[in-house]
Amino acid sequence: MTGNQHTHTASERGIRFDFADPALADAVRIGLTRVENLLRSVVQSDLEFVTETALHLVDAGGKRFRPLFTLLAAQFGDADREDVTKAAAVVELIHLATLYHDDVMDEATMRRGAVSANARWDNTIAILTGDFLFAHASKLVADLGTEAGHIMASTFSQLVTGQMRETIGPAQGQDPVAHYLKVIDEKTGSLIATAGRFGGMFAGVAPEQVRALSVYGDAIGKAFQISDDIIDIASPAAESGKTPGTDLREGVRTLPMLYALTDPDPQGDRLRELLAGPIADDNLVDEALKLLRESAGLEQARQTLAGYADQARTALLVLPAGPARDALDALTDYMVARTY
């Protein structure tokens, strides 16, 4: 709190909302409390162990970006409707379910500062828990009507396709950059777009504004992923709060790397050698980071990020001016600024 200005901040891996308007901050806080209560009630099972595993990631926290965006999108209409709370819970349940499955595929041991479900129990338990959350998301969607069911089924299809696309990699001769951008559109942009769409729909927002919220969500989701890619290379640990080169250590080729690998500069040969697989040696990680920071790839990734930010800002022009639009506009600016 600064002076008499009430500020609420929410963030997830770098996505941050700053609400300078006290009424908006309070409305979103109250809405998130309703969502939390609903999440905890819907995952209860008569088998106590299932309840325990389902609550594992719910209780681990996270800043609930997707339901938060749903609630913020609803501010352009009647945000107090019960279906808005259900819609926000649906997108979070889908997101949480994908995390259980992602951790199995990635063989992760930690998630949100807690031991991952697959490490605490085993892969089977983690997969079944994810399925359990998908089932309860489906039950909530059924309450929201046929159109919502179609939208969520389509979104789920995109999430799975994006994961499959990432797993098999680009086809022979396919542009790796185009492949990567399609993956993040499906894996990240699609669910955030649906969060915005649901928030507007169930708050009774005009159809053209619902479309704008969906477009904004898709663009900001992709911008979020690319900005994370850039920070992993460009930002010292003291500034970003995360160890640089995590993607290099995991053998993940992100957008700045893909751009850098297309550079005809002779340094590109050394980068291709370094990026052939995961890098375990700290000195080699440092060498790769130095080459990437000096490459044109980093600036190209920033330009792509700026393009998605522009798409998001253009979508906002369709929405009425006010605190909710200001919050979304500030998020867009922050998404770009955090990479410098």
TrEMBL record:
What the entry lists under InterPro entries is as follows: Isoprenoid_synthase_dom_sf (IPR008949), Polyprenyl_synt (IPR000092), Polyprenyl_synt_CS (IPR033749)
Query: Which cofactors are reported in the record for this sequence?
Result: Mg(2+)
EC number(s) for this protein? 2.5.1.-
CDD domains reported in the protein's UniProt record = Trans_IPPS_HT (cd00685)
Give the highest taxon in the source lineage.
Answer: Bacteria
GO terms (molecular function) for this protein are: transferase activity
What does the UniProt keyword field contain?
Answer: Magnesium, Metal-binding, Transferase
Which family is this protein grouped under?
Answer: Belongs to the FPP/GGPP synthase family.
User: Which protein are we looking at?
Assistant: Polyprenyl synthetase family protein
* Taxonomic path: Bacteria, Bacillati, Actinomycetota, Actinomycetes, Pseudonocardiales
